[in-house]
Design a protein that fits this description.
Blueprint (H helix, E strand, L loop, with lengths): L2 E5 L7 H9 L3 E6 L10 H9 L5 E3 L6 H6 L5 E2 L8 H13 L2 H20 L2 H11 L20 H19 L10
Parallel strand pairs: 1-2, 2-3, 3-4
Helix pairs in contact: 4-5, 5-6, 5-7, 6-7
Length: 183
């Protein structure tokens, strides 16, 4: 059964070994999630792309590095975080990037940044969990064991970002495009 390898550290597996696993068909894809201060400055990802086709690599850190990873590195796609709140908009972002519509891609991307910034600043998992509940999309219930809850002082910011993104999603789905999202 082909696997997807989730890489979060340069020390996890050597690039040549990873390339062999892809060539043999052991790895179907690589989920790339090494956080960089500047995602455009990533020597390891450049080295990886010398050995593994870009179509086999998915950016694995939500929307924050998605534009850079797709535009500058040619990665296949990305795993979404805030797309749980705005699935149509994240699909619109993907289509805009793939079609080369930089202006629309930037507007979609900018709409995701407030929630993505909170996810990065507080906790990727906890904020997304709370955002779904606080947006009133669904009651996510308690977090799984071994995960701590978001400190309550962050709830108002998370709720505001999630509800704003959800309102944009609903407008976009209805064809009303307050951000002039043409995709």
């Amino acid at each position: 059964m082909p696997l997807t390898l989730y890489i979060k550290s340069e020390d996890y597996v050597e690039v040549e070994t990873l390339a062999r696993l892809v060539e043999r068909g052991t790895l179907l894809a690589v989920k790339y999630a090494i956080v960089r201060k500047n995602p455009a400055d990533d020597p390891y990802l450049r080295l990886l792309l010398e050995h593994v086709p870009a179509g086999k690599i998915v950016s694995g850190m939500g929307e924050r590095p998605a534009l850079v990873h797709m535009r500058q590195f040619g990665l296949a796609a990305w795993t979404t975080g805030s797309g749980c709140i705005a699935p149509r908009m994240v699909t619109g972002l993907l289509h805009a990037v793939r079609s080369g519509d930089s202006d629309a891609a930037q507007r979609f991307y900018d709409a995701f940044l407030p929630l993505e910034t909170l996810r990065e600043d507080i906790s990727l998992i906890r904020v997304l969990h709370d955002a779904v509940t606080l947006s009133q999309l669904a009651d996510m219930g308690p977090l799984l064991p071994l995960l701590s809850s978001t400190p309550p002082e962050h709830y108002a910011k998370i709720a505001e970002a999630a509800r704003t993104l959800l309102a944009l999603e609903r407008d976009y789905a209805r064809g009303s495009q307050p951000l002039n999202l043409s995709t």
